[in-house]
Structure formats: C-alpha cells, structure tokens
Design goal:
Number of helices: 4
Structural class: alpha+beta
Distance between the termini: 120 Å
Shape: elongated
Strand order of the largest sheet: 1-5-6
Order of helices and strands: HHEEHHEEEE
Length: 179
C-alpha cells in the first residue's frame, strides 16, 4: 500500500502548485487579452473622434463643401481615400498597418471607406467611414490628398452624402477703397 503525502488540509500536495500555475497564467494572459480586445475595438473604427467630426461636418453643413485639412486634431501631410474592397496592396501603399488591415477587413467590405492619414512616411491614423454617413467612393484616387487639395464637394443622395474632390475656392482680396 503506497502512501501519498497530504497537505495539512487533507488535499494532495500536488494540487497547490497546479493552482498557482493557473493564477500565474491568468495574471499574465489577462492583461494581454484585455489589451488585444481594446486595440481591436479601437482599430475597428479607427480614430473615433475624427469620425464624429466628419459626420458632424456633413450633417451640419447640409451640402456645404468640407475642408478636411482642418478636421483632424493631429498633424498630417497626406490623406489616402481607400474605397470599399480596396486590395491589400493599396492598403499597404496607403500606410495602413497590418493590424488595421486585418481588423477592418476592407477587402471584404462594401459598406465603408477608409481614410488613412500620414505624416511624411509615418502612419498617423485611420478613420473608417460608413458609406451611409459619407460616401467617399467618388473621391478615391491613386494619389493621396494634401492639405491644399483635401477639399470636397458634398452632394446629398438618397443614402446620405457623397463626397467628390472640388477645387478650393481662391481667396479674394478685399476691395481697396478709393478716396
């Protein structure tokens, strides 16, 4: 008859180290999983504050042109409009990081456009814009927009608003009064 060592509580001694491993795994993996969920939620819609500003500008403007150069709260030098079902190569060229491409799934979606902002060669932010809030498909082009040409004409459609590039109005000099 084999005897087993028992802890003072009467439970086998080997059970305690196994429980400690589960607690250790929970402390290590818990924050990692929580962080991954937060990154996934944030990445799914991109910069939510900018998305709200774009939607507000479209709704309050009532068809007035939208100047994208002033809407982001960060510095940027180029903005790429990625239409629905944009291929992965175009998304990489626009600077969209892997995690954003994977979570947004633009290649498989027809209901959103993505605006990707860069500062020089560095990715700054992206915004996922549902097409029923603002359809950027007419504004999609191969070249990125700069501050000077990120000006869009807004047309009201049955589905919402459609944005297309428009020339920026020239500043007119004030008339000089004659004495």
């Amino acid at each position: 008859m084999a005897s087993t060592s028992r802890a003072p509580t009467g439970a086998p001694a080997a059970a305690k180290p196994q429980r400690n491993l589960w607690v250790l795994a929970l402390f290590i993996l818990g924050p990692l999983l929580f962080g991954a969920v937060l990154v996934g939620l944030r990445t799914r819609s991109g910069d939510m504050a900018l998305r709200i500003r774009i939607t507000r500008a479209l709704n309050e403007g009532g068809g007035a042109p939208v100047d994208m150069s002033h809407l982001p709260a960060f510095t940027w030098t180029s903005m790429q409009v990625l239409p629905p079902r944009a291929p992965a190569a175009a998304q990489r060229l626009a600077g969209l990081p892997f995690y954003a491409r994977w979570v947004v799934g633009l290649e498989r979606r027809d209901d959103v456009s993505v605006l990707a902002f860069k500062l020089g060669d560095d990715f700054r932010a992206h915004v996922v814009v549902p097409r029923d809030k603002g359809d950027f498909v007419p504004a999609a082009r191969a070249q990125p927009y700069t501050h000077d040409d990120a000006f869009f004409e807004v047309k009201r459609t049955a589905e919402g608003f459609a944005l297309s590039p428009a020339p920026r109005p020239a500043l007119q000099a004030a008339p000089v009064p004659t004495p």
